[in-house]
Amino acid sequence: MDIILVPGFWLDGSAWDDVVPVIEAAGHTTHPLTLPGLESVDSDRSGIHLRDHVDAVVAAVDAVPDDAPVVLVGHSASGGLVYAASDARPERVSRVVYVDSGPFADGQALNADLPADVVDHRLDWDDFEEDSLRDMTPEILAGVLARSVPQPAGTVREPHRLSDDARRLEVPSTVIASEMSADVLRSLMAQEHPFVTELATLHDYEIVDLPTGHWPMFTRPVDLGALIVEAVAR
């Protein structure tokens, strides 16, 4: 199976380096993506829009030969990207895996209130609560900060646009719950919390636990790879 790995904010495709060997050892082909504007700290992010990131994921799907089915894996805010790509190519996506993430609804933005004059949205550890940083040793934190690239601000402010409700909602999905447990997510769904409203609309989904912070590709990469392999097998 071809598995497209999409990192969350501030990261390039190398974020998956310690996860890829586990997936490939199981016989799969991986495609870690570096999204537009995340190539380096020197990249020009002023003209990068959310649609550019969605289009990059869709292009990766289209690049898999012979119209073979693919699995999309999205971490954090990239859950919205892989969900939008499944909306654009539902016939090609056999499963979506959300890593401490979930689908974004039509019209939903991560932070529509980010000031319009911000071009580079930078990583700041002070923005994260303690649970987000669980298992992030000082060495891991320093490594992530050293490799981080500013996020194009347009991708933070702009809303997702979806169109194929009928087929998108039928795509099987797996949520790997790390910062918040599966029980917490299900409780939020029962309360109709906006954070999980779109997840509750999916027709075929599962939630599995991987207790750690928000970045399991760094804190528990082998376990994360194993859960992705298990999701693909289903």
TrEMBL record:
GO terms for molecular function: hydrolase activity. The keyword Hydrolase applies. Gene3D superfamilies: alpha/beta hydrolase (3.40.50.1820). SUPFAM superfamilies: alpha/beta-Hydrolases (SSF53474). Keywords: Hydrolase. The keyword Hydrolase applies. Residues 3-222 form the AB hydrolase-1 domain. This is Alpha/beta hydrolase. It comes from Isoptericola hypogeus.
